[in-house]
Write a structure and sequence with these properties.
The radius of gyration is 25 Å and the shape is flat. It starts with a helix and ends with a helix. A hairpin with a 5-residue loop joins β1 and β2. The strands form three sheets. Strands 3-4-5 form a three-stranded antiparallel sheet. Helix content is 50%, strand content 7%. It is mainly alpha-helical and 318 residues long. The chain contains eleven helices and eight strands. It has three domains: 173 residues, no CATH class; 63 residues, N-terminal domain of TfIIb; 59 residues, no CATH class.
Length: 318
């Protein structure tokens, strides 16, 4: 069976599991739909591989051999295929478009369900299927140049569309509720769709009381009915907003976008904005006057200068 056929079968089985009244099968739909999505990505890499070796680009490690005549050829013994990070790197170099932010939402929810499924509301699966539907549709149309209904079968595709439509309607209602209160800071109000329930990880979160004042705004999960306050999840929300920047700082160096506030000691100080979204503390000096780099709270000085430039200046004065 080809990779494409495997992808189609996996998604179809995932939809069948999703329609089951057995919650265990619903949870198994998660891994099947996700596996089908990854297989679609691998199918694209196969299509871009040379005719003489259609699996070249899905090999995790490309090996080489040299025969007695000195000719170098690709090794056929490498069996391991690419993982998610490998796919991301190859897609980037090949200019293949995928909304990786949405993909990571699916990956995150999948991990949550795989490891803590007994504590999660079955409704979280609706969100995963809805996001997956969009990713599947866009990739099939834009990269594989085929029609989703024809490729997956009309029945399977209609189920995916229906789940997506219902979830998006619920999400719009939740977002409308969130927009009724004053979130004080644009960075927060512009990222309300990233708020998640701390109990079940669902993105279907609404305001419990529109008269509450920031930051102690009461919230309720429309998926598991858990109630909580924004202050309970503020640090996690900021981490979600700045996930990409934090990842770059961790892997490539540079300043982290979030720091501990020197006043309330919560990890809610946004370095670029120079303010704490929890207590409202704002720092006057956020850039070194000598080199222009961002000065973190721990490096902030009356001279408005970073440690490196301060040291260089002291050496000149000596």
């Amino acid at each position: 069976m080809s990779i494409l056929n495997n992808a189609i079968a996996s998604i179809q089985v995932g939809v069948e599991d999703y329609l089951s009244e057995d919650n265990k099968r619903k949870y198994s739909s998660v891994r099947n739909v996700f596996a089908g999505l990854l297989l679609l990505y691998k199918e694209k890499l196969c299509r871009l591989s040379p005719n003489e070796d259609r699996e070249l680009l899905i090999r995790a490690n490309i090996g080489f051999e040299r025969d007695e005549q000195g000719k170098v050829t690709l090794s056929k013994t490498v069996k391991k295929t690419v993982n998610v990070q490998d796919i991301k790197k190859r897609f980037k170099s090949l200019r293949i478009g995928v909304d990786w932010k949405e993909f990571e939402k699916v990956n995150y929810l999948r991990n949550e369900i795989e490891h803590y499924y007994t504590d999660k509301s079955p409704k979280i699966i609706d969100e995963l299927v809805a996001i997956s539907c969009l990713l599947i549709r866009n990739f099939i149309v834009e990269e594989l140049k085929q029609e989703p209904a024809r490729l997956l079968g009309d029945e399977c595709w209609q189920v995916l569309l229906e789940v997506k439509t219902v979830y998006e309607q619920e999400k719009l209602a939740c977002n409308a509720s969130l927009s009724e209160v004053d979130w004080k800071y644009p960075i927060i109000s512009n990222s309300l769709s990233e708020i998640r329930c701390p109990s079940c990880s669902s993105g279907l979160v609404k305001v419990n009381n529109s008269f509450d004042e920031y930051p102690s705004i009461g919230l309720q999960c429309a998926s598991c009915n858990n109630t909580f306050r924004y202050t309970d999840i503020m640090a996690e929300h900021l981490n979600e907003i700045y996930f990409a920047d934090s990842y770059i700082a961790a892997t490539q160096g540079g300043d982290y976008p979030i720091d501990d506030c020197s006043q309330c000691w919560e990890a809610t100080f946004i370095v670029e904005e120079g303010l704490c979204t929890n207590c409202g503390y704002a720092t006057e000096y956020i850039e070194c006057v000598e080199c222009g780099i961002t000065i973190g709270l721990k490096d902030e000085t009356e001279q408005r200068i970073c440690d490196r430039c301060d040291y260089a200046r002291s050496m000149l004065e000596d």
